[in-house]
Amino acid sequence: MSHLIAPSILSGDFANLIKDIEMLNNSDADWFHIDVMDGVFVPNISFGFPVLEAINRHTLKPLDVHLMIVEPDKYIKQFKKAGANILTVHAEACTHLHRTIQAIKQEDMSAGVSLNPHTAVNDLEDIIQDIDLVLIMSVNPGYGGQKFIENTYRKIERTRNLIEKNGSKAKIEVDGGVNLTNAPKLIEAGADVLVAGSFVFGSDDPEATIRALKNV
């Protein structure tokens, strides 16, 4: 399977989001990656439901929603209503992770689990067969434009081994510091989906940058 590209709209122009949405619609991007932050689980605040609903009205591609929030269970139905196709929660934020995953699936969304850089892959061993996506953070969550953590390659390899050992169909997504230098190594290590924010939206030609990442 060819790898997927999910540009992070967090790095877009908030004063002119429709322009960036139309660009992504016309690009080789596969998903829209949307980071939802609450200022509690991470030290930043981003999109709420009105913004997500507005984005959804104009998108032609799946919404890959990454929740960096406490108590995500409270909002699962609302994220479905707002347009999320894929809903990813942090393992560190869920007291009863299996219950959370089942609640996401009951709303007919794909269910993902994200791991912070310090969280061990083995924490997913008892749930890997139930999830559709593992999102590996290659920076500390909360802000765009951070430096890529080199240990990510080994973490992807361990995740790939866990998936194959358990017969899981989960995809591996990588978020943070992705660029054309590390993208080939991430894919070689086993990544299926690459999230890129500032590298795409900070480039002179975002569509060409997405195309280059897709063609790695």
Automatic annotation (TrEMBL):
CDD domains: RPE. Binds 1 divalent metal cation per subunit. Substrate binds at residues 8, 66, 142-145, 175-177, 197-198. A divalent metal cation binds at residues 33, 35, 66, 175. It catalyses: D-ribulose 5-phosphate = D-xylulose 5-phosphate. It is an enzyme of class 5 (isomerase). Its EC number is 5.1.3.1. Keywords: Carbohydrate metabolism, Cobalt, Isomerase, Manganese, Metal-binding, Zinc. GO terms for cellular component: cytoplasm. The active site is at residues 35, 175. GO terms for biological process: pentose catabolic process; pentose-phosphate shunt. GO terms for molecular function: D-ribulose-phosphate 3-epimerase activity; metal ion binding. Pathway: Carbohydrate degradation. It holds the Pfam family Ribul_P_3_epim. The keyword Cell cycle does not apply. Its cofactor is Mn(2+); a divalent metal cation; Co(2+); Zn(2+). Belongs to the ribulose-phosphate 3-epimerase family. HAMAP family: RPE (MF_02227). Catalyzes the reversible epimerization of D-ribulose 5-phosphate to D-xylulose 5-phosphate. This is Ribulose-phosphate 3-epimerase. The gene is rpe.
